[in-house]
Design goal:
Elements: H1 2-19, H2 22-27, H3 32-46, H4 52-81
Helix pairs in contact: 1-4, 3-4
């Protein structure tokens, strides 16, 4: 099952990388509001004051961030290939 999930994941990444320009993908940043929330969650986590729901929110963001980094890596490769 993991292999199928991984295959679908990479298909999605390739689709997104081709749908948007690599430059636009590389320029993507989360909103200021989301950045502030993330900093709040990290602070609570570091101080040991994070709730289980907040921990889940933080974990989901970390997973999201990892996927965005992979997408940006693929976009960077696409940018270099087109030069």
């Amino acid at each position: 099952m993991t292999n199928v999930k991984t295959s679908f994941y990479w298909e999605l990444m390739d689709y997104l990388a081709n749908l948007a320009t690599p430059e636009r993908i590389l320029a993507f940043k989360i909103s200021e509001t989301m950045q502030q929330r993330l900093e709040e969650l990290f602070k609570k986590n570091n101080e040991g004051e994070i709730t289980p729901d907040e921990r889940q929110e933080l974990d989901e963001f970390v997973e999201f961030d990892q996927r965005v980094m992979l997408l940006k890596a693929r976009a960077a490769v696409a940018t270099k290939a087109s030069q």
